[in-house]
Amino acid sequence: MGQKQSAAGSHKNIAYRPLSDRLTGYAEQRASDKERLHAIMRRYSKRVVEFTQQLLSPYAGSLKVDFASFRPQQEAGRQIRQRARNDLLHVDSFPTRPSNGNRILRVFTNINPTEPRVWLTSETFEELAPRFAGAGGMPPPRPVASGPRKVLIELARAARLHSLARSPYDNWMLSFHHFLKANQEFQEKCARRQWEFPPQTTWLVFTDMVSHAVLSGQFALEQTFIVSKNVLVLPEKAPVRILERIAGCQLV
Ligand SMILES: [Fe+2]
Q1: Distance 107 CA to ligand 1 centre (A)
Q2: Of 56, 58, 149, 220, which is the most buried if we count CB atoms within 10 A?
Q3: What does 121-179 look like in DSSP terms, one character per residue?
Q4: Cα of 113 to ligand 1 centre, how many Å?
């Protein structure tokens, strides 16, 4: 827990990439510390993958293992740019890793020995999207590109230029993430529930569905999964399907 994260503003947490076994965002102190942290992250990631495959057995064969993270900073009063703030309610959308309509499932573990991790949740995407899309302040999603724009987007995707290759779904979700964080009225007046996750607790959240914020807490581990939209037990609950129903067109 004494490990520091890199001071560079680009790193919000210490990240671990299970597929390449790489640790980033770590402020080098002693080499032996880095090795120990790396081993802990590797083991945490492996155990969470096994646990989640057992718990959510219908998804066992199709969970895509994304990044894991260690969150060594106290969340209360953290000075960070608005869009990166964890204490403002939002639904997740990754700016550099578009999901193309697949789900974001995250597993968190509070490893603080004494303090709880305190979350706030508000309504789900299913309730928020119809309220804010269109008349509620967010422009309606644009349909999938066709003709020359489609060719351009496919070239950008092949060249891994993610910001140009984003689907209309990903564009809308990222705008919605920013919109909710900047919406003071929503932040102050929305329905809310506070959760206290005691030390040693693990919890799982579809963070693209549940609007959430972290009010306080220090020292948490987290593993992200991407769940294909094609294997969902309740496909109609996927944000992409909800948004497509609102827009009346295909968005990925
Ligand atoms: Fe989040």
Answers
A1: 12
A2: 220
A3: EEEEHHHHHHHHBGGGSBPPPPPPP-HHHHHHHHHHHHTT-HHHH--HHHHHHHHHHHH
A4: 23
